[in-house]
Amino acid sequence: MTTLPTQRANNAHDRLLEAAAVLFYSHGITATGIDAITTRAGVAKKSLYNNFASKSALVACYLDARHREWLALLEQRLAQATTPDSKVMAVFLAYEDHAEYAYEYGFRGCGLLNAAAELPVGDAGRDVVRKHKEQVEALLAGYVNELIDNKARSAQLARHLAFLLEGAITRAGLEGHSDCLHQARHIAATMLEAL
Question: What is the model's pTM?
């Protein structure tokens, strides 16, 4: 099980973001108040507003950080991938890595989707989540296209793989562990072998 970084940030901005990340993921955005964030970060309430224009701005930073965190996991996995199919598997493995962090209150599924579910239509945070999911699907399409060199077919298969991945991460969040993600990766490998 991978553990989240434990080194405490030195500046108030990063401490607030770290505190918000844990609390937003564990309890949800709506249920997490400013007081809980500042208390956990060990800063005065005024520090939050000196570093973020609003709670919405803090949420946007959280979503961006979560996206960058996943991209870093993917880069680590891609560094070991030498074939197009292993690059597809790297996407699935990066999600598994994220699911296997030692979260304070256990694994609750995709933090981005959890946040999007709480945000109103039109909220900028939902756009961050949508762009992340589109980027994942585009990456899959690129890797699949290396296998079959047919953009239309690659896009269709990438969409199937993205839906498989999203279903698995949602179900894994409900179950509290990554087993569904492991199973999804094996299903994806079977789909690629059939090509």
Answer: 0.90
Residues β-bridged to residue 82: none
Q: Taking CA 114 as the corner, what is the angle to CA 110 and CA 118, rounded to the nearest 5 degrees?
A: 165
- CB 49 within 8 Å of CB 115: no
Burial of 169 (0-12, 13-18, 19+ CB in 10 A): buried
Rounded mean pLDDT, 172-182: 95
- Bridge partners, residue 2, by sequence: 101
Amino acid occupying residue 84:
P
Q: In sequence order, what are the beta bridge partners of 23?
A: none
Count of residues making up the chain: 195
Amino acid (one-letter) located at 36: A
Q: Compute the radius of gyration of the chain from its Cα atoms.
A: 18
Query: 132 pLDDT exceeds 50?
Result: yes
Which residues 6+ apart lie within 8 Å of 121 measured at CB? Answer: none
